[in-house]
Amino acid sequence: MDSYKIIYDDEIELGMMGTFSKRVTRQDVEDFAKVTGDFNPMHMDDGFANQTQFHERIAHGMISAGMISACIGTQMPGPGAIYLGQTLRFNKPVHFDDVLVVNVEITKIDQKKHFKLVTLKTTVTNQDGEVVTDGEAQIMPAQRDKK
Q1: Helices in 5-51 by DSSP H: which ranges?
Q2: Residue 81 contacts residue 116 (beta carbons within 8 Å)
Q3: Contacting residues for 66 by C-beta, under 8 A, at least 6 apart
Q4: DSSP-assigned letter for residue 134
Q5: What is the pLDDT at residue 4?
Q6: Whole-angstrom distance, CA of residue 68 vs CA of residue 124
């Protein structure tokens, strides 16, 4: 089994942060449409998209949301975290070849009977520092095996 960087529930602290970055390509958008079945012409048809307020195809908003999931599952708190919910606001379009940076920050920790419920501020910016997507996530961090 591979070795993963995991931040367990007994290590979680307010203010901890994680980051993840990726360039969004035309191929990413086409692959996302194939996986989800979302072939909205705004994302898939140059002729259609050229006639809209964006004047070109844009990426699905849920691609940036998926990158938040990637940050939570690989960086903060990392593998073993259970993603329970997410609010999202799509503030700006994501264009092909935009470089998105996801930042998550722990803002609240609630101790439940058998687990911790952690709230994270989630922000996705583009290469110009503009916020394209933001919101709040609730997760349950990994627990240590009590064998």
Answers
A1: 26-36, 41-44, 46-50
A2: no
A3: 32
A4: E
A5: 81
A6: 8
Whether pTM exceeds 0.85: yes
60 burial (CB, 10 Å; 0-12 / 13-18 / 19+) is: buried
User: What span, in angstroms and rounded, lies between the C-alpha atoms of 17 and 130?
Assistant: 19
Task: Convert the pLDDT of each residue in 24-40 to its tens digit.
Answer: 999 999 999 999 999 99
Proportion of the chain in helix, strand, coil states, percent, rounded to 5: 25, 35, 45
- Angle at CA 69, nearest 5°, toward 15 and 139? 55
Which among 99, 105, 140, 139 has a CA at the least distance from the CA of 122? 105
Residues in the chain predicted with pLDDT less than 50, given as ranges, are none
> Can you give the pLDDT at residue 146?
75
Secondary structure E strands in the chain: 17-23, 82-90, 99-111, 116-125, 131-140
* Domains within the chain, CATH numbers bracketed: 17-140 (3.10.129.10)
d(CA 93, CA 20): 19
Please state the separation of Cα 107 from the chain's center in Å.
16
